[in-house]
Specification:
By secondary structure, this protein is mainly beta. It has three helices and 34 strands. The strands form nine sheets. The chain has a four-stranded antiparallel beta sheet, with no helix packed on it. A four-stranded antiparallel beta sheet has the order 7-8-9-10, with no helix packed on it. β12 and β13 form a beta hairpin.
C-alpha cells in the first residue's frame, strides 16, 4: 500500500490508483475506500492499511489483524486473523488469535480446522501441516489426508511430484497420491534429473531406484552420482570409478582411476594411475589411458601413455614424457611405439618411427567406407589392392593384428 506523504485533519483525495471506480482515501492516518463518481465513502476510516485493488477484493489491516475487503465496502473475511495469506484458488492460510493455523476460503468458510501449529502450501496445491506433537502430515485442498502424522519432517522435492519424509535422521519418499515409494530407512536420498533416486543406506552403500521404487543399480558402491549433462551414472568404490547407463547396464567396469566423457558425449576416456595419490593427480610415469564408446565397447585398451584423436583415426602411443599431455599434432620424431585404431575399435599396429603418408590417405579413403571385423579382412583387402599398388602389399603385411 502507498500512503500520501502529507496528512490532513480532514479527508483528502489521494493519487492512489483505483479499481473499477474505487479509490483509497486517507484521513488522520486511517484509510477508507470511496466511490470516485459519487465521492461516497464505502467504508469508515477504520483501517490501518489497505492494499491496492488488483481483483474485486483486497487485503486490509485493522488493529494488527488482517482481513479481506470487497470493492463495495463489505468485509468478506473479517479482520480477526494475525496472519492471512492467499495461497491459490481463493484459499487462504490463516492464523487465529489463539495461535492456531487453518485454511479458509474467500467467503470465510473453514476448509481445514484451526487445530494446527503450522501450515505450508506445496507446489501441487496441497498443504503440509504440523500438529501439537510436532509431527507432520499432508492434506489436499479439501482437507483429505494424503500422508498421515507419522513423520518429524515433510518437505516437497522441488520441481517434482514427490515428498521426502524424515524420522530419526532417516528419510523416505512418497508420491502425490500418498503412496510410499521408498521406505523411511535411508540416511540420504537425492533425486536425479530423470526422476530416479540415489539412495545411501546406514552402512554408507549407494544404489539407484526408479520413480516406482524398482531397483536399477544395486547396493554395491560407496558413491553414485549423475554424470553431468548426460544419461549416465558414475559409480565409485574407493579410488576406482565406473559408468552405468539410465537402465542400470554397466557401461564401464568400476576399475579405473578416472573417467571423462569427451567428443560430444560420444566417448569415455579412462585412466589408470600408477599410485594411490589424491585422485586427479597425474605424474605421467607408468600411468595408462584408454578409450570406450558410450555403448561400453572398448575402443582402445587402457595401456597407452597418450591418445591422439583425429577426425578418422586414433593414434595411441607409448612415450617417455614425465608429464602426460595430448598431442596437438602427430610428432613422429618423439614416438617410439604407436598403434593406429579406427573408431570402431579395429587395430593396426606399427613399431615404425613414422606412418607413411600413403597409408594414412588410404585409411581415410577406404577404412571409413568398409567396416572390418578382424585382421583377416584387412589383410585380404590389402592383397586385393596389391595388383594396382605394391605399396598396399607392404601395408597389409605391416598393419595386421
Amino acid at each position: 500500500m502507498r500512503k500520501n506523504s502529507k496528512k490532513f485533519n480532514n479527508e483528502i483525495d489521494t493519487t492512489i490508483p483505483f479499481f473499477n471506480g474505487i479509490k483509497i482515501v486517507e484521513s488522520n492516518g486511517l484509510f477508507a475506500i470511496q466511490d470516485c463518481l459519487s465521492h461516497r465513502l464505502l467504508t469508515d476510516y477504520i483501517y490501518n492499511q489497505i492494499d491496492e485493488f488488483k481483483h474485486s477484493y483486497t487485503k486490509v489491516q485493522r488493529n494488527n489483524c488482517y482481513g479481506y475487503l470487497r470493492y463495495d465496502g463489505k468485509e468478506i473475511i473479517p479482520c480477526i486473523y494475525s496472519i492471512l495469506e492467499e495461497c491459490f484458488d481463493n484459499y487462504f492460510i490463516a492464523k487465529d488469535m489463539w495461535g492456531y493455523y487453518g485454511i479458509i476460503d474467500r467467503m470465510n468458510n473453514v476448509i481445514i480446522p484451526f487445530n494446527y501449529f503450522g501450515i505450508t502450501k506445496t507446489y501441487n496445491n496441497c498443504f503440509i501441516i504440523k500438529n501439537e506433537d510436532s509431527n507432520f502430515a499432508v492434506v489436499d485442498c479439501h482437507g483429505n489426508l494424503i500422508i498421515d502424522f507419522n513423520y518429524q519432517e515433510i518437505s516437497e522435492i522441488p520441481n517434482s511430484d514427490f515428498y521426502i519424509v524424515y524420522n530419526d535422521l532417516m528419510c523416505g519418499i512418497y508420491d502425490l497420491r500418498g503412496r510410499e515409494i521408498i521406505p523411511c530407512k535411508y540416511s540420504d536420498i537425492s533425486k536425479t534429473y530423470y526422476n530416479c533416486f540415489i539412495l545411501k543406506n546406514v552402512e554408507g552403500v549407494c544404489a539407484v531406484v526408479d520413480c516406482h521404487g524398482n531397483l536399477i543399480i544395486d547396493f554395491n558402491y560407496q558413491e553414485i552420482s549423475e554424470y553431468p549433462n548426460s544419461e549416465f551414472y558414475k559409480v565409485s568404490n574407493g579410488s576406482m570409478d565406473g559408468i552405468y547407463d539410465l537402465w542400470g547396464r554397466e557401461i564401464i567396469p568400476c576399475k579405473y582411476s578416472y573417467i571423462s566423457l569427451i567428443v560430444n558425449n560420444s566417448f569415455f576416456i579412462v585412466y589408470k594411475y600408477n599410485n594411490q595419490k589424491e585422485r586427479g593427480i597425474y605424474d605421467g610415469r607408468g600411468n595408462q589411458v584408454g578409450l570406450y564408446d558410450i555403448r561400453g565397447n572398448e575402443i582402445v585398451p587402457c595401456k597407452y601413455s597418450n591418445l591422439l584423436l583425429r577426425n578418422d583415426s586414433i593414434i595411441a602411443s607409448y612415450e617417455k614424457y614425465e608429464k602426460y599431455e595430448f598431442l596437438n599434432e602427430f610428432r613422429n620424431d618423439k614416438i617410439e611405439l604407436y598403434s593406429l585404431y579406427t573408431y570402431q575399435g579395429y587395430l593396426l599396429e606399427s613399431n615404425l618411427s613414422k606412418i607413411p603418408e600413403f597409408i594414412d590417405d588410404f585409411y581415410k579413403c577406404i577404412f571409413r567406407r568398409y567396416p572390418f571385423t578382424n585382421s583377416d579382412d584387412i589383410r585380404s583387402l590389402g592383397w586385393w589392392f596389391s595388383i594396382s599398388s605394391a605399396k598396399l602389399i607392404f601395408f597389409s603385411k605391416t598393419f595386421t593384428r
